[in-house]
Design brief:
The protein has helices spanning 32-45, 65-70, 120-137, and strands at residues 3-13, 17-19, 49-50, 53-54, 77-79, 83-84, 90-95, 98-103, 108-117, 152-163. It is of the alpha+beta class and 164 residues long. It binds zinc ion. The site of zinc ion has 6 residues, from helix 2.
Length: 164
Amino acid sequence: MLKLIIVKGKLKLITALQLNDLPLSLSPINGNILRKKLKQLLFLEESHCKEGKLKLSDCEKPDCKLCRLFNRLPARVIFLPINLDKKSRMEFKYEGDRIIARISSGSLLKFTLYYKVFDEVDEENLLLLRDSFKLLEYDYLGSGGSRGAGKVRLCYWQERRIFL
Ligand SMILES: [Zn+2]
């Protein structure tokens, strides 16, 4: 590896974020929530499709940037657990045997990504990852997005480069 880029960012909740089926152990919030959503949005935007259907698994094209970013080893992006800033409010509700978490609007989700750069293509791909957050602003995180929940805005992005 040539370089490690540590990205620290903050997402502001414009509307409340609802997380369904949350295991109680998931506190802080698992970074996979963000990973899954960004991957899905980016693959859809770039028409990573097979027979007209969104294909999230590896397409096996050697130069596919998306698969390099999300599907191949060594993993380029590591999504660390998401933390809430101190002023954020999170409440839990039980519905049968499910736990639903609701984080109120105005809260800040603080995320950290480790981005590994092996060559120039990885360096370029960081922009792709950055762009996926723009897609997220027009979409939503968590559940209930079609009813307006989980609107976010990226309000902070900092990259720190470490040469290893
Ligand atoms: Zn691919």
